[in-house]
Amino acid sequence: MSLKVYINGTLFDKEDAKISVYDHGLLYGDGVFEGLRSYDGKVFRLDEHLDRLYESAKAIWLKIPMAKADLAKAVNDTVATNGIKDGYVRLIVTRGAGSLGLDPNRTSDPQVIIIADSITLYPKEYYENGLEIVSVSTIRNHPAALSPRVKSLNYLNNILAKIEGLQAGCVEALMLNHKGEIAECTGDNIFLVSRGDLLTPPVEAGILQGITRDAVIELAKNDGLVVRETALTKHDVYIADECFLTGSAAEVIPVVKVDSRPIGDGKPGVITRELSKRFHELTRS
Ligand code: PMP
Q1: What percent of the chain shows pLDDT beyond 70?
Q2: pTM value?
Q3: pLDDT tens digits, residue range 77-95?
Q4: Which residue, of 83, 117, 151, is where some domain finishes?
Q5: Domain co-membership, 168 together with 38
Q6: Active-site residue, selected from the candidate residues 63, 68, 124, 151
Q7: Which of 78, 148, 160, 169 is the most exposed place for a label (fewest CB within 10 A)?
Q8: Distances from the Cα of 241 to the Cα of 29, 85, 176, 215, angstroms
């Protein structure tokens, strides 16, 4: 059976799921999206993802043409129709088809697209042995130009950083902000463990406020850890005892080397492994 893709209320076979080449989502990256996970058929933190989607849309003057509750139902129905148990959901809202000019007033019919599919995670060995990442020269978008809090369809900033990372032989890359502080990775948030405390850049550093990031902060606090959302530099990363990344697709993944420097003893840390285990339990509970 072919995968069914939802577009504006209709389910299409994957091969027939198409939108206009005049859509401003394609022409200008003008739209917003979310990447969600389902575990045992249930979408993890769907409400939080929908809140972020609607906020991203609001920030770019895009009106999502359906109520949040209806979109939630559409996501759940698309997951169920495709028989997805442990999978990945891509939720997209484009500005819709318009003219060849920029003017968003000349677009009509925002396209609401839901793809529920399987997910290719990083290989298991990365979770067991940890990732190596590098810091790259492409800085994260300046918040006054395009706030990284907006999960927009324009991911060129992240893609350019990803290319730099890949050229250095790494699957993730660490991006700084315009002040030279640690921001986040191309598709993941970053955490450090230092003297037993959990540190992560604040949202004001110019990052996406990750749903996984929020969940891990909650778990850490419940575990009695001190969590500090604070400006961090590369120096803080280099001298950290532990480092890990969080994201819907990656979940919690240890980092053992940054810019060729071993982090801590060069192995996934104790607190990283504990939080990773707890996150796993949370998603499967
Ligand atoms: N930062 C960026 C730039 C991202 O694209 C993502 C999502 N892939 C994240 C962080 C992690 O966010 P979440 O935990 O909500 O998936």
Answers
A1: 100
A2: 0.97
A3: 999 999 999 999 999 999 9
A4: 117
A5: no
A6: 151
A7: 169
A8: 39, 36, 20, 21
Pocket around ligand 1 at a 6 A CB cut-off: 35, 158, 184, 187-189, 208, 210-213, 246-248
Confidence tier at 104 by pLDDT (50, 70, 90): very high
Q: How far is the CA of 247 from the centre of ligand 1 (A)?
A: 5
Residue 116 — φ and ψ, nearest 5°? -115, 120
- Where residue 34 sits, what CATH number does that domain have? 3.30.470.10
Question: What number is the average pLDDT over the span 244-267?
Answer: 98
161 and 244 co-located in one domain: yes
Containing domain of residue 50, as a range? 4-117
pLDDT at residue number 19: 97
Of the residues 92, 117, 142, the one at which a domain ends: 117
